[in-house]
Design brief:
Strand order of the largest sheet: 9-10-12-11-13-14-15-16-17
Largest sheet: 9 strands, mixed
Distance between the termini: 86 Å
Number of helices: 16
Structural class: alpha/beta
Length: 487
């Protein structure tokens, strides 16, 4: 037998490293090294107690293997719980937070070290974990679900860097007090969404979902979507529940966020329009009403102009024809501020500190409760990367579809929150002035993202369902404008 033969085996792999290790070292090198040594002794003991073996350790990283996936998961959880106890009372700069990833897969043995895809996937999972947290692959979840006393949160199917195939990822919920609000549970099967996948023209994989019963209603993607979190968190789920009350809702995560591919090569209006087309084709739809929200309105308008034979009715909620960079009212100071926001996104989006994301949240929904704001802050962080957030923001800020708006030919309902801080209602007034077969309805409230108890939501659904059920407003001249009586 050749001495060069590659030896392989199936193993449960745990990868771990310290979050923000370089920053901690630059702040307090001696203290960080001392704390790391103490934590490593604790970690090494627990790995041994659970029957594991350390295959590699360099700097702050640890790679361990276990014969049992249960031992690997239980060890990871125990390590994080013990390290959390050890960090009690320490400042954020003094405490070290490990991130851990667990995978079950084939590995290559070279001496005492382990190599191969199984190791690489565990390392990528570790990179997705929150500081002090554990992420596991779908393979691990299938083995331990219902057999171990732990709670899990699905992070969906992810495209991991340098991993050829998408990987389903779950986070282990370690601290009950830190858990996000529980998922809303609907007793009726009509609210059980079915998630599917398709590919756009350029090969980007898109996640889309169907929920509810009745005639189809297609919703274009907006900032920020996550097919699973949208239902779970107290931000969008009331709107989704309303939209699925009388219709089969077809919606999707845009490229670069949610459950769709994050590593997309192009973010542009044309790419997003092509993605919408790929989803409706995959869903087998010929003709349907189209609902756009926020920047999804520009995507919907562009699609409707390109495919007037397929869009029966158009609903535009909180929309605009020009992004921040293109509006005549934007001053040079405004441009500097918007560019600074994009820079801050790249620097602070993935931070544990939600301060920057809270700035966005306070503009999108200033009347949100603490629970709603915290949920949306976390949703932003988990739905897309820092780079994709900045690219998304810059792309939308450069939207300019003024040459398309007047070409919209189907009946169009335009709705806008009257005191919207993020997108002024004047943007919808301009849309209504340019679309001949349109009606503008202004709704009371301040939130760009409407919340469940917002005063305008009852009228929103009343206007929407009336329009979808056949209400028309053909006019010879200017579009109809309606305002709530409380104006």
């Amino acid at each position: 037998m050749s001495k060069d033969r590659i030896h392989r085996k199936l193993a449960a792999i745990v990868a771990a490293d310290v979050a923000g290790y370089s920053r901690l070292m630059s702040t307090n090198e001696t203290g960080t090294m001392q704390t790391l040594s103490e934590y490593r002794r604790l970690m090494d003991d627990l790995i041994a107690q659970h029957g594991g073996r350390i295959a590699n350790s360099a700097g702050d990283s640890v790679l361990a293997e276990f014969a049992s996936i249960f031992d690997a998961v239980e060890c990871s959880v125990n390590v994080q719980m013990r390290l959390s106890e050890a960090a009690t009372g320490l400042s954020e700069d003094a405490a070290l937070r490990f991130r851990m990833g667990v995978h079950l897969g084939d590995v290559i043995i070279r001496g005492t070290d382990l190599l191969g895809d199984g190791v690489n996937i565990a390392a990528r999972l570790e990179g997705m974990a929150e500081p002090g947290g554990v992420c596991i692959s779908g393979v691990v979840f299938e083995q331990i679900e219902g057999k171990i006393d732990l709670s899990f949160r699905s992070l969906g199917i992810q495209s991991l860097k340098n991993i050829a195939r998408p990987i389903e990822v779950y986070a282990i919920e370690l601290n009950k007090e830190d858990r996000l609000p529980p998922a809303v549970t609907f007793s009726s099967a009509k609210f059980q969404q079915q998630i599917k996948y398709c590919r756009s023209d350029d090969g980007v994989r898109l996640a889309y979902a169907l929920a509810g019963n009745g005639p189809p209603l297609v919703k274009s993607a907006n900032w920020i979507n996550h097919l699973e979190l949208d239902w779970e968190l107290p931000v969008y789920r009331h709107m989704l529940a309303g939209l699925t009350k009388h219709n089969t809702l077809i919606r999707y995560d845009a490229r670069g966020n949610g459950l769709s591919d994050w590593d997309s090569s192009e973010l542009s209006l044309d790419a997003w329009v092509n993605d919408l087309e790929a989803v409706v084709n995959a869903a087998g739809l010929d003709r349907f009403p189209l609902f756009g929200f926020s920047q999804g309105c520009a995507v919907s308008i562009a699609y409707a102009v390109r495919n007037p034979h397929r869009v029966s009715r158009l609903v535009l909620f909180g929309g605009f024809a020009t992004g921040r960079f293109k509006r005549p009212s934007t001053t040079p100071t405004d441009l500097d501020r918007f560019r600074a926001i994009a820079t801050l996104m790249r620097c602070g989006w993935n931070s544990e500190d939600p301060t920057f994301r809270q700035m966005m949240t306070s503009q999108l929904m200033p009347t949100a409760t603490k629970e709603q704001a915290q949920a949306f802050n976390e949703m932003q962080r988990r739905s897309l990367s820092a780079e994709n957030a900045a690219r998304h923001f810059e792309t939308v800020s450069n939207f300019d579809i003024r040459d398309l708006v007047s070409k919209v030919s189907m009946p169009t309902l335009i709705l806008h929150i009257r005191d919207d801080l993020m997108v002024p209602i004047d943007e919808s007034r301009r849309l209504a002035a340019a679309i001949s077969r349109s009606r503008l309805v202004s709704l009371p409230g301040k939130n760009h993202i409407p919340l469940e108890n917002d005063p305008g939501m009852p009228q929103f659904f009343e206007e929407l369902f009336s329009f979808l059920n056949g209400r028309t407003f053909e006019t010879a001249g200017a579009p109809t404008v309606s305002s709530n009586s409380t104006a």
